[in-house]
Amino acid sequence: MPKTAYVYVPSPSHENLEIGLNQGLWGWRGSALDRAGARQTVQSLTEGDFLVLGHRGPNSRVAPSAWANATLQRVIVTQVSRPYFTDSAPVWPDDDYPERIGIDVLEEEPDVHGTALGADAMEALRLSANKQGAAVLQPGIAAIAQLADALSPTPDLPGDETVDHQGADSAVAQVLVRREQAKLRKNLLGSATEAACALCGRVLPTRFIRAAHIKRRSAASRQERLMMANIMPACLIGCDELFEHGYVYVTDNGTIAISPKSDITPDLAAAAKALAGRTVADHGSHRAPFYTWHRTHVAN
């Protein structure tokens, strides 16, 4: 069963927090892990475990459980993508923080009340605040499940919006990734009831349109995942799957081309050929790096 570690990030470390999230890394000074099993806690985290980062809470020098009804200005739920390792390569401006783990951001929420996470998780974050940001471990993922339930519901999404997310191996993680996708979909489509597929150009009810990452979510950085330049409307009547698996790709000049991979069956080749030569909608320099990544890493 996955376990959850909690780390409190104080207000002065706001810049370090953003850097860590964007780099997919979290790190500690050795001195912060030298105390009472703190290093063993971090070393025990394996791929698929969770790390919850709490930011900007009240004074932590209070009685146990006093944070149960407190509010954190920001809570970030991440999943461990790379277990404990050491590295002194520069990442943060003020120190090396050489004892590190890789993380994948699943959800970010502002103004989280203690009742959304639960008293045990809030106490773990308070203890972390008093331990120089050392991780405080709890078994299971009950607090994350409670947070997911407390968040506003997401609308129904067409198809499996998490098809390319390789690290989310629990139902709770899938729920959080779907929330991210719902936000992207809202930004892409707004309140429209119809939309055009960027690849085939057909105008369809929005339930047939996916907010598709051009550069796969599993390969994209946190910033890239949220950039609308990396999102395109792709229809569920074939185009999304053809692009997702690299049977078609977008050239430098914005036209759709067929990959040799599409020759698996005559019917697959015919479906890909129907898109060949079309100009993809909204192609421009802002999307070019993402199409280049797809062409290089998926289509070839």
Question: Could you please say which CATH topology of the largest domain applies here?
Answer: ph1033 like fold
Task: Identify the CATH class of the largest domain.
Answer: Alpha Beta
Measured as a percent range, the helix fraction is 25-40%
Structural class: alpha+beta
Unreliable sequence segments: 159-169
Our count of helices gives 11
**Looking at the structure, what is the overall shape?**
elongated
How far apart the termini lie comes to 37 Å
Compact description:
It contains eleven helices and twelve strands. With 300 residues, it is an alpha+beta fold.
Keywords, separated by commas or semicolons:
300 residues; alpha+beta; ph1033 like fold; 2 domains; 6-stranded mixed sheet; two-stranded antiparallel ribbon; elongated
Describe the structure.
This protein has 300 residues and is an alpha+beta fold. The protein folds into 2 domains: 3-150, ph1033 like fold (Roll), CATH 3.10.590; 182-299, no CATH class. Helix content is 31%, strand content 25%. It is built from 11 helices and 12 strands. A 6-stranded mixed beta sheet has the order 2-5-4-3-1-6. Strands 7-8 form a two-stranded antiparallel ribbon. Strand 11 and strand 12 (256-258) form a beta hairpin. The longest helix has 19 residues, at 171-189. The radius of gyration is 22 Å and the shape is elongated. The protein starts with a strand and ends with a helix. Residues 159-169 have low confidence and may be disordered.
